[in-house]
User: What shape does this take?
Amino acid sequence: MRTSKKVRLTPIYVALVLLAAVSVVPFVWMLATSFKHGSDVYTKVPSLLPLDRKTGDWSPTLENYDHVLQVGGLGQAFLNSVWVCLVLVPAKLLIDALAAYSFARIPFPGRDKLFVLMLAGMMVPTITLLVPRIHVTQQLGMFDSGWGLIIPNVASVLDIFLLRQFFLSLPGELEEAARIDGAGRMQIFWRIILPLSKPVLAVVTITSFIFHWNDLVWPLVVLNDPELYTLPLALQQLASSESGRAYYIMAGAALAVVPVIVVLLIFQRRIMQGIAFTGLKS
Amino acid sequence: MAYFIIFLLYPALSALYYSFTDWDLRTDAAWVGLANYADLIFDDVKYPHFWKSVQVTLQYTLIAVPLTLGTALAQALLLNAIRRGSNVFRLLLFLPVVTAEAAVGAIWRWLYDPQYGLVNSFLGLFGIPGQNWLNTPELVIPALAFIAAWQCGISMIIYLAGLKGIPDSIREAAIIDGATPVQRFWRVVFPMLRPTTFYLLVTGVIAALQVFGLVYVIFSGGGGKSVTGGPEQSGLTYVLHLYLFAFRYDAMGAACAMSFILFVFIMIITALQFKFVKQEAS
Assistant: This one.
C-alpha cells in the first residue's frame, strides 16, 4: 500500500517540479544575468550562473546594480516608490476603513443606495476612467506631482467592500457595551473595531502594497518629470533606452521584483488569502 | 463621499461626454456628436489600426484565457493531490503573480531574445529551431499568451479553494463506484468546479480585453511616438491603441470613444455570461 502510493504520486511530483521550474527559472535567469559582466552575458551556451565566458570561473559583479542605481536613475525611483507606498498604503487603509465603517454601522440617509452606486462604479473598466481622471487630476493641480500619484488612489471600492463585509460580521453587542460605557463613535472605531479587524486589515495592506509597488499605468500617465518616476516606470524607461544591455535591465528588474518576493515569503498565507478575495485588484 | 464623486462618478460620466467631442486635454472640448464613433468604426484612413487592434485583442483573449485557466486548473489539481511540499510548490508557482508588469515585460523580452534567449536555447535541446518570437507577427500573440499562462497563479489559488470545497464523501463514493481518475475528473470534479470556472472565465475575459502594461513594456522601443505595437501591429492591443491616442496623439475624444466602446462591449459580455448562468441554474 505504502509503496503503491509512492509510485502513484511520483508522476505528480515530476509534473509539479517541471511546472515550478517554468515559473522560477525566469527569475533565476534574471538574477544570474544581473550579476554577470557585460562580456559574459551573450554566450552561445546559456549559463544560469554568473561565470566567466572564457575560463568558466565564478565571477559575479555588482557593477550592473551600481550602474542602474546611479546613472539609470533607479536609485531615485526606488526611493520614490518606497515613499509613495509609505504614504499611500496607510492613508488608504485609514480612509477605506473609515468609509467601510460608516457603510457598515452608521445609518445615514441614502446609505445603501450610495453603496450600490459605488459597487456599480467598480464595473466600469479602469481604462474608461483613465482619461477623465487625468483631467480631474490636472484641474486639481496635482498632475505630475507626488500628490497626483497618491490622492486619486487613496480609496479603493474593493477594499471598502471587503472591510465593510468584515465589519458587518463583528458582533454589535461589543459596540453597544462600549457606548454604554460612554465611548464615542471614533473611540469605538479605534479601540474596538480596528483591533478586532487585524486579519482583514493585514490582507488589505499587503495586497495594496503589492499592487501600488507594481503599478505601471497610473504613474505612466500622471507623471512627466523623470525625477518623480516610480520603480516600474523607471524600469520601463531603462528597458527601452538600454534595450541592448540585458545585464542592466535585469539588474533593474531585480530591484523591482526582489522586495515583493521578500514580502511574499514573509506573508505568504495572508497574501494567498487576500488574492482569493480580491484577485489583486484586477 | 466627495472623493467618489470626483474620482469615480464624475470621470465615468465625463468619459461619456468627452467621447462626443474633439479634445486634446489642453483646449476646450468641441462637440462633434457621434463623429468619433463613426470615424473609428468606418474611417480607416483616419484610424487605420482600429480594427486591427480589435482583432489582436480578440485573438489574444481567445488564446490566453483558455491557456491560463487550463494551466491554473492543472496546477491546482496537482497541488491538491499531494500533501508534502504542497506549500512550497504553491509558493513557487505563485511567484510570477507578484511581479511588476514592467519587470515581467523586461524579463520576457530577454527570455525571448532570438539569439541569446533561454526560450530558444531550451527548444534547441529538442532540435526545434529558434524563433524571433517578438518580431514575427504570427508568433507575437502566442508568446504573449504564454506569459499570461505563466502568471496564472491567481486563478490557481481560486481553483485550489474550489477543489478544497468538494466534499471528500463525493470523491470517495465515486471511487467505490469504480470510477477511474479520468472519469472522476470529468464526471465529478469538473462539474463541481463549474461555478469557479465560470467566475474565472468572466474575470479572465474582462482582464484579457484590457491587456496593456505588458504589451506597452514589450513593444515600446523608446520615448516619443515610437510605440508601434510590435511587428505589423501584431501586438497592438485595444487598450494600447487607446493609450496611444490619448497620450501620444492628443486625441482624447477618440480615446474616450474607444474606452466607451470597450465598456459597452464588456457590459454586454458580462450580461450574456450571467444570463447563461441563470439558465443553467434554473
About this structure: The domain at 48-250 of chain B is CATH 1.10.3720.10 (MetI-like fold). The longest strand of chain B covers residues 21-22.
